[in-house]
Design a protein that fits this description.
Layout: E1 5-9, H1 18-31, E2 36-40, H2 46-49, H3 54-62, H4 67-72, E3 82-86, E4 89-92, H5 101-106, H6 114-118, H7 120-125, E5 130-134, H8 141-148, E6 152-158, H9 167-180, E7 185-192, H10 199-209, H11 225-232, H12 237-240, H13 245-266
Parallel strand pairs: 1-5, 1-6, 2-4, 2-5, 6-7
Antiparallel strand pairs: 3-4
Helix pairs in contact: 1-13
Length: about 270
């Protein structure tokens, strides 16, 4: 790959499996030999806790080695990268101080592209194949920052009666971002928490595939208790239990994502 590709994982609806998808796709990419940097953009710190126990996550937050410091002080993100302990996979962690990020951004010059500027040196070095950003479940100035810094956005959608709620708002928001960052593309929708026994799964799938100009990834993630056990152990399921159904599905989804990115980057 000739450049570092930045992908945001975003959905304004909570419970979509966004963080779980981001953490497992990042780990699966690293297992495939890619160099990956993940950024936890959510005050809930779930992506951070996907790799570190609570004590370590709080230690990093107290030291100020987080994305909040990067953005608030407009720092080069390179100095805030820490290893996850998995080869080829690094992270910039979050903190509860991200709850004030909208206020912090309000008075800044060109506030929509601050994160993009903070990523410039890391991207220019080309060390990472991918940078994955976990966005919070909102549609505000910080998520606009994340998406302006990204080449692509992946929208995880829960296969449930409420899973499609707010999706139209998400697409409208993407259109707003494109006015500032025209190159941003929706790479696709990733279906999560699927239960093929339920009628609404089929309904969700049919509704999503009717959307124009929006790809729905063929590989989806079914409900699997292994994901919860992995979360309890502060590890992504593709590392925690590699032979589980969900781990295999996330690996297949990751391959599909990378194939689509490669295809787009060649065109």
């Amino acid at each position: 790959m000739s450049k570092t590709v930045v992908i945001a994982f975003a959905n304004n609806k909570g419970g979509s499996g966004k963080t779980t998808t981001c953490s497992n796709v990042g780990c699966a990419m690293a297992q495939d030999g890619k160099k990956v940097l993940m950024i936890d953009g959510d005050m809930q710190m779930n992506l951070t806790i996907a790799y570190f126990d609570e004590e370590k996550a709080l230690e990093l937050a107290q030291n100020g080695k987080t994305i909040h410091t990067v953005v608030k002080e407009e720092k080069d993100i390179s100095d805030f990268i820490v290893s996850t302990g998995i080869e080829g996979l690094d992270i910039v962690t979050s903190s509860s101080l991200m709850s004030s990020i909208e206020f912090d951004l309000f008075s800044k010059w060109q506030r929509e592209v601050i994160l993009k500027r903070c990523l410039e040196r890391v991207r220019a070095r080309g060390y990472y194949d991918y940078i994955l950003i976990d966005a919070p479940p909102t549609l505000g100035g910080w998520v606009m920052n994340i998406m302006c810094a990204s080449d692509y956005v992946i929208i995880p959608v829960e296969a449930s009666p409420w899973g499609l709620f707010g999706l139209a708002n998400m697409f409208d928001f993407c259109d707003q971002v494109k006015r500032i960052s025209p190159s941003l593309e929706v790479l696709g929708i990733a279906i999560t928490k699927a239960d093929e026994r339920k009628k609404y799964f089929k309904q969700t799938l049919e509704t999503l595939k009717e959307l124009e100009d929006v790809k729905v990834f063929e590989n989806y993630i079914r409900v699997d208790s292994a994901i919860e056990w992995a979360q309890d152990s502060s590890r992504p399921v593709v590392d925690f239990k590699k032979n589980s159904r969900s781990a295999i599905e996330y690996i297949q989804l990751t391959k599909e994502i990378m194939e689509n990115v490669d295809r787009k980057e060649r065109n």
